[in-house]
Amino acid sequence: MNTSAMIQELKTRLARHTAVTVLTGAGISADSGVPTFRGQDGLWNNYRPEELASPEAFDRDPRLVWEWYNWRRNLIRNCQPNPAHYALVDLERRGGTFRIITQNVDGLHTLAGSQRVSEIHGNIWKVRCTRCGRTAVNREVPIAILPHCSHCQGLLRPHIVWFGESLDPVDLQQSHDALRQCELLLIIGTSGVVYPAASFGSVAKEHGAFVAELNRDPTPHSDLVDMAIHGSAQDLVPQLLA
Ligand code: BV8
Ligand code: ZN
């Protein structure tokens, strides 16, 4: 099936189905100028993830980790949602059961206006106290290094799920409910290598959903999903609603 025939089939399914779940990754924000993690120009090409995105790295050198997050906060604050983010806002407004599960920490889905969003890897604009656990929104760029909690003076860390850390149980529950309930799962712009999100396509499929992947490049899941469409998210996603 060629791309336009696949888009047409997805449009028909979207019009018919009342339970839709969307899993997004860095690829949906790439067109907004947020660097992806892997592949050419990926963030991880210059930095080893375990050196920066892990609790061990933060224990060893919190200053280095905060400098990396400051650099990313500075990049992301100038980025705006793109047509793919806005198309998902329109999709939610059509009504029915809907949830976006995003691995992105940039906050662009909510900035675009999406309501039902589970940010399963956290949010770069939130901080959390390593002593008392309080979370807060903090949009300072650069954030003072090293930032401290106004309640207990504990060291603040990014409110982000690092490698080796568990996801928030509420986010996990919302995600699993959405994967079990949906008739259609759209997987947009993720390389599908980071767990547990990498297993979400199979979970939805086991529960009977039609699973479609929209990605610029093939992924390890392209042969397992019901449909894989290649192209940029900002071109493809709006076409589904046109
Ligand atoms: C956990 C935070 C329980 C940093 C991130 C061995 C086997 C299986 C699992 C494991 C294992 N060893 C360790 C694990 C567990 C580990 C894991 O999955 N590791 C992998 C790498 C093997 N997972 C965890 O630790 C998770 N927790 O499992 O808890 C537990 C606890 C302890 C011990 C065991 C289990 C926590 C994972 C959280 C990781 N946090 N980031 C930060 O953001 O500051 S990961 C990082 O990757 C980002 O969050 C990112 O969201 C995520 C996924 O990446 P993608 O979004 O997919 O981005 P990527 O660049 O890879 O791909 C972009 C895609 O877009 C590409 O396909 C590209 O082609 C496409 N694209 C590009 N441009 C476009 C486009 N598509 C469309 N349009 C475009 N324009
Ligand atoms: Zn505190």
Could you write a compact summary of the structure shown?
With 242 residues, this protein is α/β, with parallel strands linked by helices.
Give the topology, please.
Layout: H1 3-16, E1 19-24, H2 26-30, H3 49-52, H4 55-60, H5 62-77, H6 83-93, E2 97-102, H7 108-112, E3 117-119, E4 122-129, E5 135-137, E6 156-160, H8 169-181, E7 184-188, H9 200-206, E8 210-215, E9 227-230, H10 233-241
Parallel strand pairs: 1-2, 1-7, 2-3, 7-8, 8-9
Antiparallel strand pairs: 4-5, 4-6
Helix pairs in contact: 1-10, 6-10, 8-9
What is the strand tally? 9
Order of helices and strands: HEHHHHHEHEEEEHEHEEH
- Give the count of structural domains: 2
Question: What is the CATH architecture term of the largest domain?
Answer: 3-Layer(aba) Sandwich
What do these coordinates show?
This protein is of the alpha/beta class and 242 residues long. The protein has 2 domains: 3-34 and 80-120 and 167-239, TPP-binding domain (Rossmann fold), CATH 3.40.50; 35-78 and 122-160, SIR2/SIRT2 'Small Domain', CATH 3.30.1600. It is 37% helix and 19% strand. 37% of the residues are buried. It binds ligand BV8 and zinc ion.
